């Protein structure tokens, strides 16, 4: 089982990077981007949060 470390500081900021298995390009597909946007809106309605900058793009390599 995973052991997650979470900060309980009010107003804290988090930075994370998501990489697919074998760097598949599904994260840049329009279908995925629409699904991600809808999921974020759905979760935000129940548990409000802010997203400062957000970028989904190809690996520059």
From TrEMBL:
Annotated protein name in UniProt: Transposase
Ranges annotated as spanning the membrane: none
Biological processes per GO annotation: DNA transposition
SUPFAM superfamilies recorded: Transposase IS200-like (SSF143422)
InterPro entries: Transposase_17_sf
GO molecular function, one term: DNA binding
Signal peptide (from-to): none
